[in-house]
Amino acid sequence: MDMNEIKEIFFQECEEQLAELESGLLKLNDGDRDPETVNAVFRAVHSIKGGAGAFGLDDLVSFAHVFETTLDCVRSNRLEPNQDVLKVMLKSADVLADLTNAARDGGSVDEARSRQLIKELEALANGELPQAAAAEPVAKSTPTAAPVPAVNEEGFQPVAFSFDDFEASEPPAIVPSTFEILFRPKSELYAKGNDATLLLRDLSRLGEMSIHCDMDELPALGSMNPEAAYFAWKISLKTDKGEEAIRSVFEFAEWDCELDVTLAGGDHAGAGEELPMQPVPFDLSLLDEEVPASTGAAEDDEQLAAQQREARDNAVSAAATASNVLQMAQTARASAESTKCVAPASAAQAAAQQAASAATPTIRVDLDRVDRLINLVGELVINQAMLSQSVIENDTNGTSSINMGLEELQQLTREIQDSVMAIRAQPVKPVFQRMSRIVREIADMTGKSVRLVTEGENTEVDKTVIDKLAGPLTHMIRNAVDHGLETPEKRVAAGKNPEGTVRLTAKHRSGRIVIELADDGAGINREKVRQKAIDNDLIAADANLSDEEIDNLIFHAGFSTADKISDISGRGVGMDVVKRSIQALGGRINISSKPGQGSVFTMSLPLTLAVLDGMVVTVANQTLVVPLTAIVETLQPEASAIHSFGASQRLISIRNSFCPLVDVGRILNFRAVQANPVEGVALLVESEGGGQRALMVDAIQGQRQVVIKSLEANYTHVPGIAAATILGDGRVALILDVDAIVAASRGQSLKPEMSLAAAG
Amino acid sequence: MTYAAKNLTTGGRELIAFRVGGQEFCVNIMSVREIRGWTPATAMPHAPNYMLGVINLRGAVLPIIDFSARLGMKPAEPTVRHVIIVAQVKSQVVGLLVDAVSDILTVSDADIQPTPDIASDFERSFARGVLAIEGRMICLVELDSVFPHEEREAA
């Protein structure tokens, strides 16, 4: 594995940490004061800093460092994480993400912005300095009051943090002092490749050191877990370096051990005598032979493991994690007995927390591999269909055991297909999280106060859909904040909360994912939209449009109602692009708006791009599949409803409105002359321009879920055809590209500008 | 002769010979993936006349080219006796509809004669050379040019 690969892994992890960071900050923003949340946030920044340090990404390190410092103030309750503080922190998280991206892709960052934020962060950290400074000397000078850490119910232990390295003007006292260090590694420490020996050796370099190894936890050989950590060390270190130096030795092990550094016996040598235990000279080389091992929580591990026996793997990791929390909770334990009492309660609590948050173990898999599996399963489904079709054809009585077996096979294949599709399914959370950043930035730019509420972010959908969702969603969010919401003054004048709310929700509805974006702004100004449409020749001046039709005008190309073109939105390349990208995903978008109450955009998307619900139809003896999402209704035309229009055009009247009739067979060149509409079936489809078309096909065979196959792989793109699929009889059927068909029909007949007016 | 000169390597090579409309052709065996019987193809809209359509090759969509029509000869009327040669052309896989596969030939480069000068450019663009085997004339086909690149770009 070369350096680049490791670096790539680091960046992947960074992404996860950044997501964690942001979601943590947002939780804090919502008033969550759980120390575990603060810890998670701190940990995220700390890990990024650590990794970045290893790769020499100095910009990232220095920013993360300042950020971490400020977070530490929050962690140690020296800084109240109120809205203002969190605003700065959220911005910092954004900059941290930018810096990470810049480090990965070599892009540039807005340096002024990051410098500004560094200043703000430092100000925050220092703003509370009088208090912090007052608190620390006390801790240092009075050993009795020294951080016997306050342990709260979540097992969060505040760690004292020195600002020595930021306050160059105040160098730490150089008088050698004796520190008492309790170092209790957890099994994770060893699991991550750290070694207590090395840490202790580093520590010994700081000064005069004596070590006592606490082996009380070591169980009998029979009940020993070879991978657990059982030893703890009590170290008495006489050094002229500060506590900071000691902690920095443990910097990368901090989360995987219990570390307690206290200043013992004042500033004078000979503090050794005052130690509760006699320091024993210890040969470090012995450690090399020692098997790393041991937590005291081995028995507790087992209790936990028993609770979760059905998921053994999970149990092991959960128990291990639980025991960490447990250990933290017991930092100040008085006796082994009391530990035993506390243990089950806190272990259970910890296990519950773990179950909720840490989730099940995951693996990283190449998308290619998953895709290959999906392809194979697709073939399996097709083969299974072919097999059952030929069995049915050859089986006269239809009750043979082959049929029974086939039915089971069918069920199995369907299950396999569902599970494989589920592998690609991902929660929409990452996209939603990105949106919160966009809201923040736009709100800043426009001077509006906006609150983004997200719901259903764990709703799962195919990865490709998620990837393609970000673009349109970003655009819509921008629009919602920039155009949808009013300025705080206007909101107050309208009797609304000056803070606008943008609500982003995702949910599953009948096999599709529905994403809703609602704002509580002014709603669409229909007069203005109408006027603009008339100005742009989109509609006739006297066109009679319903409210809904007016609302839908914003999806037209070259349409923007913003009074002035802003940086953010309003360049007129907006909603039509959004609509097109949603349609490209096989989705639909709708808008509903109430004046004064806001607008709601509703997007309905397929859960996957690998399969599609289609209507199988026949056109000129060819079998075609029409995506079900495009079809509004189907009807059997009557001769009286068909009206010729000019030389070759025909219209069909549906409930007294006229809709152009499109002969699919003619457009695809499958036949030379137009078919007789009365002998066929008309599929009423919704097209890009908002107008409807009636597609003429010969007959409808049925409705089916089909596996999408690429035509481009071995052939080339064919106009009017979106893709291919393989039907149960083993033959290839083409999937119709409805928009292209409609566009082709339009090219021969109506001009695009006129079509809307005609439809309206 | 540039056509003969290109892509010729030393040593023997194996070729698959097939018949189309009474003439014999051959292609390099290395580019042939498999040979299978004819199955009805799904017609493609707006396709040139030699493009018979696509078939399902174990889950992949395989375009079928009527070799006879491609050479400007009479379009084939596919029967169960017809054969599809599945060949790799660059990164794509295509099927060639031919009347029958006749032979596997092992020839040396010296056996390959340059395409005679009299042929028109259209025919000559498919031919990499000709072979004289037991009194028959077999045309070595350049697969790259059989598959319609120009049309693809136009489409």
Keywords:
heterodimer, A: 760 residues, alpha+beta, Four Helix Bundle (Hemerythrin (Met), subunit A), Alpha-Beta Plaits, five-stranded mixed beta sheet, 22 strands, flat, disordered C terminus, B: 155 residues, globular, disordered N terminus
Helix and strand arrangement:
The complex is a heterodimer of chains A (760) and B (155).
Chain A: H1 3-29, H2 35-54, H3 58-75, H4 83-105, H5 111-127, H6 129-141, E1 177-185, H7 187-191, H8 196-204, E2 207-214, E3 232-239, H9 243-249, E4 257-264, H10 284-289, H11 298-307, H12 312-329, H13 336-357, H14 367-394, H15 401-424, E5 425-427, H16 429-446, E6 450-455, E7 460-462, H17 463-484, H18 488-493, E8 500-509, E9 512-519, H19 526-535, H20 547-552, H21 575-584, E10 588-594, E11 598-606, E12 611-619, E13 622-627, E14 631-635, E15 642-645, E16 649-654, E17 657-663, H22 664-667, E18 681-686, E19 692-697, E20 699-707, E21 721-726, E22 732-736, H23 738-748, H24 752-759
Helix pairs in contact in A: 1-2, 1-4, 2-3, 3-4, 3-5, 4-5, 11-12, 12-13, 14-15, 16-17, 17-21
Chain B: H1 2-5, E1 12-20, E2 23-28, E3 32-37, E4 51-57, E5 60-66, H2 67-70, E6 83-89, E7 92-98, E8 100-108, E9 112-113, H3 121-124, E10 127-133, E11 136-141, H4 143-146, H5 149-154
Parallel strand pairs in B: 2-11, 5-7
Antiparallel strand pairs in B: 1-2, 1-8, 3-6, 4-5, 6-7, 9-10, 10-11
